[in-house]
Every structure is written in structure tokens, then in C-alpha cells.
Amino acid sequence: MNPVTVISGTAVPLDRSDVDTDQIIPSDWLKRIERTGFGKGLFAEWRDDRDFVLNKEEYAGARILIAGSNFGTGSSREHAVWALEDYGFEAVISPRFGDIFRNNATKVGLLPVTVTAEIGEQLMRAVEADPTLEITIDVERRSLSAPKIGLETTFPLDDFTAYRLLNGLDDIGLTMRQGDAITSYESTRPAWSPSTIPR
Amino acid sequence: MGSTLIDKVWERHVVRRVEGEPDLLFIDLHLIHEVTTPQAFDGLRLAGRGVRRPDLTLGTMDHNVPTDIAGLGMHNTELVTDEVSRAQMLALAKNCEEYGIPLFPMGHANQGIVHVIGPELGLTLPGMTVVCGDSHTSTHGAFGGIAFGIGTSEVEHVLATQTLPQIKPKTMQVVVDGEVPEGVTAKDIVLAIIARIGTGGGMGHIIEYRGSAIRALSMEGRMTVCNMSIEGGAKAGLIAPDETTFTYLRGRDYAPKGADWEAAVTDWRALVTDDDATFDKSVFIDAATLEPHVSWGTNPGQTVSISAVVPSPDSVTDPVERNAVVRALEYMALIPGTPMRSISVDTVFIGSCTNSRIEDLRVAAGILDGRHLAANIRALIVPGSYRVKKQAEEEGLDKIFVTAGAEWREPGCSMCLGMNPDALKPGERSASTSNRNFEGRQGRGSRTHLVSPAVAAATAVAGHLATPADLAARQGIR
Fold first, then answer.
1. Candidates B153, B254, B419; nearest CB to A28
2. What residues in A contact B42, CB-CB < 8 Å?
3. Would you tell me how many other CB atoms lie within 10 Å of the CB of residue B17?
4. Does residue B144 carry a pLDDT above 60?
5. Do B137 and B146 touch, CB atoms closer than 8 A?
């Protein structure tokens, strides 16, 4: 994972709530065994509609997606995060995220930014009115600002996730340092704990 | 102050706790399937890492499996005609072999939907932590453990370390007390819960389902309830183990035996929420008020009683919610005020990790016995595993289905998610016992009504959304 520190750029307003991961990346894309190339499948069914917001020229090159509440609900498919990232998004702003999506995003380095419903609404309308509106998100300060509309706010992000993002750290590498603790825990498991390999 | 069951199971699995960091949790069982693992194994190879506990890992194939390749056979995977699907399934076989992970591939007598086989083999036990790269892993919570879906990065993490760093979610209780009216099933209970709390109601929480109506459910019913926890946004859902749980597990292939069994049951009896424990959030539902539930919209929260009508956007005050209703009505091609019972369907699907177990099939067979599908209705009945299939055939259920005009298929995820040949055509409408009515979920342009197996079977006979009682009433009139 590359370090995620400050994300600055324009945004796309996706004015829908309950955008589930089946919409973000439809299931026929899940048959692929590669890790890259999912950007083409992002919102595949909605993009067939010429009027869909991602097809609008004025929003080309945006790095931030602004969505309604309950973004990324449903299926655990990390492919949804890969698709957003591959398309060019670095952050998603929503009043509420599906838990698994949120987790997946922080593992990959796509920043989930949780804002209040009021600020979500304010940003949505502002970006609809002005596609050139610049938004800056700072991970270390947990801040989101859009100076042109006088917006300056903060968002929640736990210290550990922020530390990993800022340093681009591999989660697995960090856990592997705890090998002794894991071995010690394993020795305390009940003898009757099931095994998938018959003993 | 006492602890909740959620706290107790969580605490038992903490490998390391440090202020300001997530808890490092040990994972007792890691189930894997073909869709969410290939990139995880590639990641392991790239980093030169191994699989720490292949003996706590089990693979199967389910999402891509075509349900028309009959019979057992080690080479069934090679018969899959969709090249991309076949490549994904063969990748799992290769990865499992390379890392020494047991696998029940297509054509194996233990193959099936990952959330059906774990419990039926006796691998899913009370008090365990179970993860899988699939959101319906919450199913396994029916046995009183913490079970949740993870993404591919986390799959790789568990393969490498058998642990996951996790921030402890909040606790929520959903208490369903009283006796459910005749005709109301586990599926109706969970649909009613989601209709009440919404798709975001459980976000950031693990739910414990409690109350006499939950206690009265069979293990199959409890799995149906826990399965759909994620549709209410919850991280996981669980039910305290009791005699029903122990009776279900006793003697299963991988469950403890003899003195181990006695020791395990003694341990499991402690897995209850203390009387003085408190939850962060509580929802109470009176079971006596419940009716069969069906979804009308494009998320599982957009669900009503079958006696209700399609709702109107005018009845919704929140503008965001109102827009969602307008959009869902348009996608579903429904007019507000239409009685749910008058909605005709093209296809009935009985299957999926929500409702493909033997009890579900028995209910459907009981309704279809001596009856025939309505004209132009296609009904797919897909057992959740080979074991379920075999059991159903021993009981003669397959003959009842075929005589009624339904298709009796091979085990797999089938029409739940449009990753295999079983899919709806654009604009087609289904009554489905699966868990998601999202846009395009059952195939591009598909329209899904989520129902119980009982309502699905009755709908297949009536041609429109119906309950078994509706069929009986109609026959009475004749």
C-alpha cells in the first residue's frame, strides 16, 4: 500500500443512498483472478446510461466520490474497492459506510471519509453546482476542507488506521511481528477444537 | 456488571490487546471459496509467506458452480463451460493443493455452499470465531460464535497469521418474544427485523438475537436469521447455544466425540449473556404481530407484510429516503397501492445460503405435494450441499418437486447472485428465498422479491405472491 497523506482534487456527486457493492462492481466481474483492471467494471450497469454522473465530462479526472448514506453495503467483495481505486478515486465521502467495505478500503488505501448527513448534503449540492470545486482531505489532521464554499470539518478515523495509511504499512507484516503471542495463544486452545484435517 | 455473549466470545479470542490499537483476534475457522481468494494467494506468494494453519482452513466451490452438471466426480470442474469461471475454480484447487488446505471441490460428496457445509459437517461450533470472504458468514453465528465476512486483504491476513486485527464493534440485542402466528417462519422474522431497523440499523454492531421466538427456532431457522444480519448492516449476528444447538451438533463428522464432547458442552453452557449485562442498542419485536414478509424494493429493508400494498413515496418524509423509494419503484416496475399478493412472477428460486437446508426443502415439498406450478412459472430448487441433496432424495422430496413441475438442481449458490448460468433475463421477476434484492443481483435487469420457502412454494403454485394459507383457502372454495 502506498502512503495516504493528503488527497486534493475535484469530486463526483453520486446522489444515491444504499449504493451496495453489487452496484459498485457487478458479480460477473468477480470471476476474474487478477487484482487489476476493475475500473472498467465500476458501476458497470449504471454507466450504460449516458446521463449517469460518471459519464459527464465535467466530472472527468475527479479523485473523490461523494455518495449518499449506507455506501458499500452488501457483499464483502473487495473488488468494489479495487474498482474505485483503479478508476482513479482516492477517497469516498458518505454519511455512513458498510462495515466490510470500510475495512476493505482502509486495507487498500482508499480513504473512507464519514461526514454528517448535513455536510454530505452540502457537499453534494456544492459539487453538483460547481464541478470544479476543490476538496482537500488531510489524513493526519482528520480534516476535510473546501475553501471555496467556506467548509472546514473533521472526520473520524482511529489512530491505528491513520498510522497505517500515513506510513503505507502492510497490515500483515505488522501482525507477523506478533508471532510469539499467536503461538502462545494457540497453546491455550481447548483440545477439542475442531480441525479441518482429520488428526 | 455482567457480560454479553458477544463480549464473552470476543474476550476468549484476544491474542494481543494494546491501547490505541485494534485487538488481535484469533480465528478458529477460516472458510474459503473460489471467488474472494485467488488474489489473496497471489499476495502470499509475492511476499513469500505461507499459510499458518491449513488445519483451520477449509475450501469449497459454490459461487460459480453450474447446477446442471450431475453426479459426483473428481473432474466435474473441468466440465464447466464458462472458461473464466472454470479458471477461477481451478485456481482454488491449485492454491489449496500448494498450501495443503483441505478442499471439497465440485463433484465431491461434501461440496456445497460454504455456509451450509460448515455447520452440517460439525466444523462450526459454539463460541468460535469464523471468517470467510463472504458477507453471509454471519450465518455461523447461529451456533453462538462470532462469524463475519471479510475482504480479500483480510483473507490473506488470516491465511498468513490465523488472526485479524479488529476494533470491537458495539453490541445490539434484537429480542423477539412471544409465539409467531401460524405460517410465519424464520425468514419472515428476519425480514421483519430488517424492515424495522433498515439496511444501516446494525452498522458497527454485532447483534444477539434473543427472546422466546428465537429460542423456539430450529438450527436451520436460526441460521436463516443470522444469515441476514448483514442485510441489516450488522457485522455479525449470533444466538446463544442451547439444547437445540447441542442436539444438532452431536455426532456430526468434525464435532468433538466422547469425553471431548462432554468437555465441549460443559464449556458451551457458559456461553450466555449474563442477566445484568447491558447492550449498546436494543430492539424489541412482538412475535404475535408478525406476518409473512416479502420485499417490494431494491434493498432488503424495503420489505412489507404480504397483506400490505406497495408503498407510496408520499408516505416517506425524509427526502433521501423518498428518492430511494421512487428509484426502487421505477426499477421494480411497481405502482404504489398495488396489493403485494397481486404481483405476478416469472421465476421462483428456492435455494441460497439463506434457505437451502433440508428443513427449507421439506417445507417447500409439503406445499408442492399434490399440486402443480402455475402456467409459465419456472421454479428452480437448489439444495445447499450434496449432503442436503442426498437427504432430500432419500426422503423423496425430489420426486415431489419434479412432479409439481419444478427443476431439481445440483448444489451451489445458483440464482442468488448471477455468477453462474442460473440467472434471470432483463425485466424478469422472481420470488426468491435468497437474501438480496439489489438491482441486477439475479442477473442484469432482474427484479427480485425476497420471500420465505413457504411463500416461494405457494407463489410457484399461485403464479403471484401468495402464502400456503391462500392456496388452502382457494382449494376450500372449490
1. B419
2. 33, 35
3. 12
4. yes
5. no
> Is B126 within 8 Å of B241 (Cβ atoms)?
yes
User: DSSP of B338-365, one letter per residue?
Assistant: -BGGG-B-SEEEE-TTTS-SHHHHHHHH
Count of positions (residues) in chain A: 199
Residue type, B274: D
Q: Which of B233, B89, B218, B92 is nearest to B149 (CA)?
A: B233
Q: What pLDDT, on a 0 to 100 scale, did the predictor assign at position B321?
A: 87
Residue A179 β-bridge partners: none
Q: What is the mean pLDDT of chain B?
A: 97
Q: Binning pLDDT at 50, 70 and 90, where does residue B89 land?
A: very high
Which of A52-87 are b and which e, b meaning 16 or more Cβ less than 10 Å from the residue's Cβ? ebbeeeebeebbbbbbbbbbbbbbbbbbbbbbbbbb
Q: How would you classify the pairing of strands A6-9 and A135-138?
A: antiparallel
The pLDDT of residue B477: 59
pLDDT at B1 over 90: no
Q: Which residue of A lies nearest to B301 if distances are taken between CA atoms?
A: A18
Q: What are the grid coordinates assigned to B390, written together?
A: 442426498
Residues of chain B in contact with residue A28, where contact means CB-CB under 8 angstroms, are 418-419
Check CB contact under 8 Å for B233 and A20.
Answer: no
The arithmetic mean of pLDDT across residues B436-445, rounded, is 96
Average pLDDT over residues B402-424: 96
Q: Which three cell numbers stand for residue B324?
A: 430511494
Question: pLDDT tens digit string along B160-174?
Answer: 999 999 999 999 999
Which residue, B404, B383, B415, is CA-closest to B116?
B383
Q: B37 pLDDT exceeds 80?
A: yes
The answer to whether the Cβ–Cβ distance between B161 and A171 falls below 8 Å is: no
* Residue type at position A5: T
Q: Which residues pair with B20 in a beta bridge?
A: none
Residue of A nearest to B234 (CA): A99
Q: What is the pTM of this model?
A: 0.97
* CA dihedral for B411, A24, B87, B53, sign (positive or negative): negative
CA distance B316 to B312: 8
Give which of B466, B377, B354 is closest to B430, Cα–Cα.
Answer: B377
Nearest-5° Cα angle at B26, B3 to A171:
120
Hunting for cell 470442474 — which residue is that?
B77
Rounded Cα–Cα distance for residues A161 and A177 (Å): 17
Please tell me if residue A109 touches chain B, with a CB cutoff of 8 Å.
no
Whether A199 has a pLDDT exceeding 80, the answer reads no
A100 interface with B at CB cutoff 8 Å: yes
Identify all chain A residues contacting B203, using CB atoms and an 8 Å cutoff.
70, 96-99
Strand runs (DSSP E) across B233-280, as ranges?
Answer: 236-238
Contact A193 B28 (CB under 8 A): yes
Is the per-residue pLDDT at B478 higher than 80? no
